[in-house]
Amino acid sequence: MDMQSDDGFVPISKMNHTNRSKQLLECFTAKFQQEPVFYVRVPGRVNLIGEHIDYCGYSVCPMALEQDILLAVSTGDGTMLKLTNVDPSYTDYECDIKNFEICNGGDGPKWHQYFLCGVKGLLDVLPQEISINGFNVAVSGIIPQSAGLSSSSALVSAAALSTSHVHNFNISKEELANLCAGCERYIGTQGGGMDQAIAFLASEGCAKLIEFTPLRCKDISLPLGAVFVIAHSLTRLNKAATADFNCRVVECRIAAQLIAKRQGIDCSTIKTLRDLQTALNVNLHTMIALVMKILHENPYTKEEIADELSITTAILEQTSLTPNTKHIESFKLHQRALHVFQEALRVQKFHETCNNFSSEGALVTLGRLMSESHNSLKDLYECSHPQLDRLVEISQNFSLGARLTGAGWGGCAVALVTSENVTKYIDMLRTKFYKQLGVENSDGLVFATKPNAGARIYVI
Question: What InterPro entries does UniProt report for this protein, alphabetically (predicted)?
Answer without folding.
Answer: Galactokinase, Galactokinase_CS, GalKase_N, GHMP_kinase_C_dom, GHMP_kinase_C_sf, GHMP_kinase_N_dom, GHMP_knse_ATP-bd_CS, Mevalonate/galactokinase
